[in-house]
Amino acid sequence: MKKSSQREIRNVLTGLAVTAGVFVLLALVFGPARVSGSRTIDLSAVFGRTDGLRVGSPVHAAGIQVGEVAALDLTDRFRVHAVLRIDSTIQLDTDASAAIVTDGIFGSKLVRLDIGGGDQMIGDGGRIAFTEDAIVLDDLLELIISRAKALQEEDVRK
Predict the structure, then answer these.
(1) Contacts of 100 (CB under 8 A, 6+ apart)
(2) Cα-flanking dihedrals φ and ψ of residue 96, to 5°?
(3) Cβ proximity of 67 and 40 under 8 Å
(4) 105, CA 20 to 30 Å: which among 14, 22, 120, 149?
């Protein structure tokens, strides 16, 4: 009887350890994106449209994830103030730009940073002055269709 209860206790403890290990593994895989390195800086950027961008969306420079979107707030002029938390080793100058792009054709939105070519660097709490808003697929298709119709009408007139 004593061996049976010891075996049950060992089985319960093993089950708890495996369950805890699975939870830790799931948290590491599906948890919020972590920026490599221990130090980060926060930069701000103001966009007219951020359709599909969310807190936690990745921030890329040269095709590599260097940070994430830390906050999105609506300003009093109906523009979106974004806080980008990036690795402190990334040096952006005052000519740097931030664009909201789609990862692939129908992928999620992310912020793409272009480093720029100026002399002075943007420090922690600084602002990226040059931004490019998100392009909405419906707007893009509408633009293509309207241009095609305009070209078609020109051909009919000739």
Answers:
(1) 47, 49, 50, 52, 53, 109, 110, 111, 112, 132, 133, 134, 135
(2) -65, 155
(3) yes
(4) 149
Instruction: Specify whether the CB–CB gap between 43 and 97 falls below 8 A.
Output: no
Q: Which helix (H) or strand (E) element contains residue 112?
A: strand 109-114
How much is the mean pLDDT over the chain?
Answer: 85
Tokens of 53: 């961008």
Is the separation of the CB atoms in 98 and 128 below 8 Å?
yes
- Cα–Cα distance measured from residue 110 to residue 108, given in angstroms and rounded to the nearest whole number: 7
What's the token pair of residue 132? 């490019």
Q: What is the pLDDT of residues 46-86, one digit of tens each?
A: 999 888 899 999 999 998 999 999 999 999 989 999 999 99
Is the model's pLDDT at 38 over the cut of 60? no
Q: Look up tokens 């000739």; give the residue.
A: 158
More confident residue, 157 or 150: 150
Give me 105's structure tokens.
């054709």
Burial class (CB in 10 A: 0-12, 13-18, 19+), 47: buried
3-state secondary structure of 74: strand
Task: Give the predicted TM-score (pTM) of the model.
Answer: 0.64
26: which 2 tokens?
A: 């799931």
